[in-house]
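Reminder to self: tokens first, then the designed residues, so the page reads top to bottom the way the pipeline ran.
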């Protein structure tokens, strides 16, 4: 019983249009709409030929009225299907039209069979043979033209072939009976072909569906890979690759339209200390928040602005829409004001700033890459001279770049031993004005450029990678000079980030000290907070190594740049050096006075010495004494002097000190 039900269900499905396979249904409709008009054409031409043959033999209602009705019906359907070829249908309409065809196929076939069999008795042997031919050709045409709609093909085939075979067998004529049997066998073969073709057609549609799905998945994966390749995963901003792609697009458009275009680079001031102090997780949160603020400013700006994260704590802008200098400065002010708002962390608030550099096309550069380089230099200038503000690349900057390029080129080929000279500025005990040591200052006497400022050639040496070689030469010269001084006079030597953040740099320092014969306790190395933040972990290990040798460590320029108490707390410092900018107005500016007072108090609490630079008047010295400063430097005592003047300065200082003691006694 169960097998019988299953067979009945299978038999029923043969005569139904599938509704659970939209792809197959659409494919059936597309193929069917191209072939079914041909079926109707076959019916119309064959029926017209039969009617013409039987015109003299059969009644008019059989040769005119019924054929006209049937031909009109099939002609209407043929025209309707021809119009569907280029139409776009939804799945529901397609299914409805196929089911309608399935329903009317059987009745239409039955009408044609009944009409042709009704004509049969009126014909002569030739006309009767034409009826047999008409029925055979129609069945074959039905199977071929309806093969994409299997249910309709089977239904019409049964409706036509069963009456045809039964009728011709019952005629008693051997020829007609043979035709009927032959037609039955051919029809069986054709139906077999129909099933095979329909199975292959359905499999082809399924494979095409699978291929389309695979292609869609591949395209989606490609789109996602493209998105990820152009997206910064942390901030979800466009990344460096996308930035330069957008820059090229913006630049081509500006070049074509003859409009201005700006490139901006933003660097977060003070991010590295936050990252070092609170860890990378907090640092990432700060970057995400900074990116969000930048996005909000750019989204509300009147001009077209493309924002991207270039890497680390650096962001890039491409500003289209013909911006002016005033537009860029206003945008820079909005960004810096938003960035410097407090950042709420888990346990504390922290502050952050940003410096910006802009370059404008076509004034600054005529191509995209040089324009970016100009913006990068404007940022470099902002960080050195206008921290926390926006700087637009100018002709002065272009001259600086040319000069910087010449300095870098000459540094690479310079003979440091011959061209580098040293100057020494005394470090004075604030209580008795006695010299306790000298700070080494480098001077470059270039054969082509003349005397070059350390503020120009030291950064250039760091950029070109020759700083460690330069440090070795300067340290050897400084130690040779210190070897001639009295044992109680110390040497203070400045180190760069490259010196303390690489194992090779520290090894060269140790080698030079051991070869000099100068006791390590007489040597004091000055490091800046910027150098420490370059790679804090490596710097910490290098400083510990130098301390183990007996050298002293001083933190230079405290109070500027990335000032962080965590560095004072975590590093084994011996001295803290207060920047000269606080001393110039110590007697007139209460804020400067309070800052120096706080710093001297900090040093006293941590039991480290305090050195103040830039002392130029007796009043400043008196103020610093009252605030508890330990050591001072400045033009009030002496300008930097050559090595051969050091012993004379020390001798004069000793005589002056002796005279003061005699007068006091």
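Designed residues (665 positions):
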């Amino acid at each position: 019983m169960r097998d019988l039900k299953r067979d009945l269900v299978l038999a029923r499905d043969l005569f139904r249009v599938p509704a659970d396979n939209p792809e197959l249904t659409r494919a059936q409709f597309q193929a069917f709409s191209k072939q079914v008009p041909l079926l109707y054409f076959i019916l119309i031409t064959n029926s017209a030929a039969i009617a013409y043959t039987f015109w003299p033999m059969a009644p008019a209602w059989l040769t005119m009225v019924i054929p006209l009705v049937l031909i009109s019906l099939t002609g209407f359907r043929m025209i309707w299907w021809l119009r569907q070829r280029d139409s776009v249908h939804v799945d529901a309409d397609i299914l409805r039209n196929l089911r309608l065809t399935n329903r009317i196929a059987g009745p239409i076939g039955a009408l044609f069979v009944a009409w042709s069999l009704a004509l049969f008795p009126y014909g002569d042997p030739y006309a009767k043979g034409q009826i047999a031919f008409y029925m055979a050709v129609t069945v074959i045409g039905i199977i071929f033209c309806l093969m994409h709609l299997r249910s309709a093909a089977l239904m019409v085939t049964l409706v036509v072939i069963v009456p045809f075979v039964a009728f011709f067998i019952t005629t008693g004529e051997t020829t007609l009976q043979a035709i009927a049997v032959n037609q039955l066998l051919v029809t069986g073969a054709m139906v077999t072909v129909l099933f095979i073709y329909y199975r292959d057609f359905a499999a082809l549609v399924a494979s095409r569906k699978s291929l389309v799905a695979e292609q869609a998945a591949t395209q989606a994966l490609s789109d996602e890979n493209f998105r990820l390749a152009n997206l910064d995963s942390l901030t979800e901003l466009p990344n460096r690759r996308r930035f330069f792609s957008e820059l090229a697009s913006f630049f081509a458009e500006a070049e074509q339209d003859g409009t201005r275009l700006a490139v901006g680079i933003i660097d977060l001031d003070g991010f590295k200390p936050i990252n070092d102090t609170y860890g990378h997780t907090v640092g990432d949160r700060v970057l995400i928040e900074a990116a969000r603020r930048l996005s909000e400013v750019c989204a509300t700006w009147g001009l077209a602005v493309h924002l991207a994260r270039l890497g680390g704590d650096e962001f890039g802008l491409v500003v289209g829409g013909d911006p002016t200098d005033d537009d860029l400065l206003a945008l820079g002010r909005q960004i810096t004001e938003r960035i410097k708002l407090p950042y709420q962390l888990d346990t504390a608030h922290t502050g952050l700033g940003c410096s910006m550099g802009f370059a404008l096309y076509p004034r600054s550069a005529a191509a995209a890459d040089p324009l970016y380089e100009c913006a990068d230099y404007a940022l470099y200038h902002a960080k050195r001279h206008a921290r926390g503000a926006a700087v637009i690349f100018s002709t002065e900057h272009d001259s600086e770049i040319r000069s910087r390029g010449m300095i870098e080129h000459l540094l690479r080929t310079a003979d440091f031993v011959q061209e580098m000279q040293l100057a020494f500025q005394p470090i004075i005990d604030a209580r008795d004005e006695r010299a306790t040591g000298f700070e080494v200052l480098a001077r470059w006497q270039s054969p082509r450029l003349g005397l070059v400022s350390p503020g120009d050639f030291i950064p250039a040496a760091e950029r070109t990678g020759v700083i460690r070689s330069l440090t070795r030469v300067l340290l050897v010269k400084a130690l040779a000079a210190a070897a001639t001084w009295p044992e109680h006079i110390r040497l203070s030597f400045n180190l760069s980030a490259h010196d303390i953040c690489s194992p090779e740099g520290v090894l060269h320092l140790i080698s030079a000290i051991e070869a000099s014969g100068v006791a390590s306790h007489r040597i004091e190395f000055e490091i800046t907070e910027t150098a420490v933040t370059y790679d804090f972990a490596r710097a910490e290990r290098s400083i510990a190594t130098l301390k183990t040798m007996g050298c002293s460590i001083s933190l230079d320029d405290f109070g500027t740049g990335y000032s962080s108490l965590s560095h004072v707390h975590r590093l084994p410092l011996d001295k803290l050096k207060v920047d000269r900018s606080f001393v110039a107005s110590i007697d007139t500016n209460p804020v400067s006075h309070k800052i120096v007072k706080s710093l001297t108090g900090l040093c006293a609490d941590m039991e480290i010495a305090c050195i103040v630079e830039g002392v130029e008047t007796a009043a400043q010295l008196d103020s610093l004494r009252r605030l508890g400063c330990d050591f001072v430097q400045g033009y009030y005592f002496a300008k930097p002097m050559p090595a051969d003047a050091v012993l004379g300065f020390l001798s004069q200082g000793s005589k002056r000190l002796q005279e003061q003691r005699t007068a006091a006694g």
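Residues 1-17 have pLDDT under 50 and may be disordered.
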